[in-house]
Amino acid sequence: MDTAARAADADIARAVAEAAARRLIEVRDANPTLDGRALKDLGDAEAQLVIAATLTELAPADAVLSEEAADSAARLDASRVWIIDPLDGTREFSEGRDDWAVHAALVVDGMLALGAVALGGPERVLVSSEVDEHAPAQDGPVRIAVSRTRPPQLVEHVAAALGAELVPMGSAGVKICSVVTGQADAYIHGGGQYEWDSAAPIAIARAAGLHTSRLDGSELLYNQPNPYLPDLVVCRPELKDRIMGAIADALAAQPE
């Protein structure tokens, strides 16, 4: 992909993330009395409508894989596929928090090409083409981003082995981006996810020079026939060996 084409695609990714995040804020502000489930469902639906309209206008020939739309096998033969999560972190969104995200990633000829993530609204959008490097290291223990509500037991074992601090936060996109921005040093997940949960923030993490992989060290692959992608590791490159070693030990200690 040449520079001009990459810049144009980055603009599309930003436009998708910003538009959906703006609509999500509007939906939440306009419905203060809705309960959590109803607000989650409304937010998902409205963000999907905005994203579908934006991609129809800006990239009408491209295929789409979205959490909130019917899948089509035609995407497997498409050269360009957008991988979309209209609202990552529905619990946080419904609780009025800002640690939710909108994900827009582009896969070109089977390779993850770029991604944009709107973090908690349209004002803060990270785009892979605009990220040169990750934040510098901080003194103190290793900080591992984990779920606010259901930290995997695997991560607790890794944290104990490394003497690490667990930092609770919301959506997967927020947790991955926290390693880019320096709020955390690693994010380890082993509890089940799909491609749309990680594609866009992983594109940003890779652009920032972070280590990204499955728990077993294999590559994270996107636009696969089955979009289930249940585990991942994102960490500062200088921590890779320690973290991957601790993960291997923790997995080996798990009962058959």
TrEMBL record:
Q: Transmembrane ranges?
A: none
- Domain of life (superkingdom): Bacteria
In alphabetical order, the GO MF annotations are: 3'(2'),5'-bisphosphate nucleotidase activity; metal ion binding
GO biological-process terms attached to the record: 3'-phosphoadenosine 5'-phosphosulfate metabolic process; sulfate assimilation
- Which metal ions or organic cofactors does this protein require, according to UniProt? Mg(2+)
InterPro entries the record matches: CysQ/Inositol_MonoPase, Inositol_monoP_metal-BS, Inositol_monophosphatase-like
Question: What's the catalysed reaction?
Answer: adenosine 3',5'-bisphosphate + H2O = AMP + phosphate
ATP-binding recorded as keyword: no
Keyword Metal-binding set for record: yes
Residues involved in Mg(2+) binding: 67, 85, 87-88, 197
Q: Which keywords does UniProt give here?
A: Magnesium, Metal-binding
Name one matching Pfam family.
Answer: Inositol_P
PANTHER family, alphabetized: 3'(2'),5'-BISPHOSPHATE NUCLEOTIDASE 1
Q: What is this protein called?
A: 3'(2'),5-bisphosphonucleoside 3'(2')-phosphohydrolase
Q: Which organism is it from?
A: Microbacterium paludicola
Q: What is the lineage of its organism?
A: Bacteria, Bacillati, Actinomycetota, Actinomycetes, Micrococcales
